[in-house]
Write a structure and sequence with these properties.
By secondary structure, this protein is an alpha/beta fold. The chain is 22% helix and 28% strand. The protein has helices at residues 13-21, 47-54, 85-90, 109-115, 151-169, 206-215, 281-288, and strands spanning 2-7, 25-30, 35-37, 42-44, 59-60, 73-77, 93-97, 103-106, 120-127, 137-144, 188-190, 219-222, 225-234, 254-255, 258-260, 265-273, 279-280. Helix 1 runs parallel beside helix 5. The termini are far apart. The relative contact order is 0.11.
Length: 300
């Protein structure tokens, strides 16, 4: 098939590579403009643009350029921008969405599923229309969410599922897509996460705190500075070998690698103090030696 491909982040690279490997002609790749990335602040292309150039494909950041192609279909994966009506009228578009629509329409379906404590999620291949993730669905696949799975790990699995679904659905051209089925059920929106949502509040239940850590950007405070919590899981100290007086169970209180939450403990594994590299929590504890009355989460 003759295709145009719209995508931007790393998650959108494998579907593009798979389409090319399957023999489809990708006439044009559209990705978001080069942006300042990393500490140096240099302008760098998006992961999709880098992949497209490596594959020898034409790349643009102007969506209007698709109107001059002879493509039969547009494929959208995490493009990061709504497709305007005039483009939708020029050709049909399909979109890989990393949720079981209509649950988690929007920008952060993987993260919202984890924060909500969902036990399963999946991928949908849907027809694109003007509404945000409202189009009918060609195919879907469900997958369980492991309670310890992080957002990057889950996204990586969903990319594999979605890529396979896309290639199989287009194996016979447009006709192999079949007829899409309208979404049914209550819509739930996955709004983009705000920076403050990555802050750990130790009064929360341990499951909620662990959900934030699983997103990959969790932070708290200690002695007036930020402390990133890069890896942790729910676990409690052994009460027989390391009993904790009930009066010491204030939220945020530190008991070795265990931190008290609203209803349990979070076992810290890897942390990153402000201005320093990531380290095992045991190394951090040996260096800081927190006193019995110090707690995580104090105001900056």
């Amino acid at each position: 098939m003759r295709l145009v491909y719209l995508g931007t982040p790393e998650a959108a690279v494998p579907p593009l590579q798979a389409l090319v490997a399957a023999g489809h002609t990708v006439e044009l790749v559209v990705s978001q403009p080069d942006r300042k990335r990393g500490r140096g602040g240099a302008l760098l292309p998006s992961p999709v643009k880098q992949a497209a150039l490596h594959l020898g494909l034409s790349v643009t950041d102007q969506l209007d350029d698709v109107l001059s192609t002879t493509a039969e279909l547009g494929v959208v994966v995490a493009f990061g921008k709504l497709i305007k009506p005039r483009h939708l009228q020029a050709m049909p578009y399909v979109n890989i969405h990393f949720s079981l629509l209509p649950r988690w329409r929007g920008a952060a379906p993987v993260e919202r599923a984890i924060l909500a404590g969902d036990s399963e999620t999946g991928c949908c291949l849907m027809a694109l229309e003007e509404g945000l993730d409202t189009g009918p669905v060609y195919s879907r696949e469900t997958t369980p969410i492991d309670p310890l799975e992080t957002a990057p790990q889950l996204r990586e699995r969903l990319v594999v599922i979605g890529t396979s679904m896309l290639v199989e659905s287009l194996s016979g051209g447009l006709s192999s897509l079949g007829q899409p089925v309208a979404q049914s059920g209550d819509a739930v929106h996955a709004e983009k996460l705000r920076p403050k949502e990555f802050q750990l509040h130790w009064e929360q239940p341990v499951a909620a705190a662990h959900g934030i850590v699983r997103l990959g950007q969790a932070w708290t405070t200690f002695r007036g500075k930020r402390l990133k919590v890069l890896a942790a899981h729910p676990a409690a100290p052994d009460p027989t070998s390391d009993p904790i007086p009930s009066g010491d169970l204030q939220p945020g209180s530190i008991h070795g690698p265990y931190v008290a939450c609203g209803d349990g403990f979070l076992h810290l594994i890897t942390v990153q103090p402000e201005g320093k590299s990531a380290m095992a929590v045991t190394d951090w504890l040996n260096g800081t030696k927190p006193s019995t009355d110090e707690r995580l989460g104090a105001s900056l």
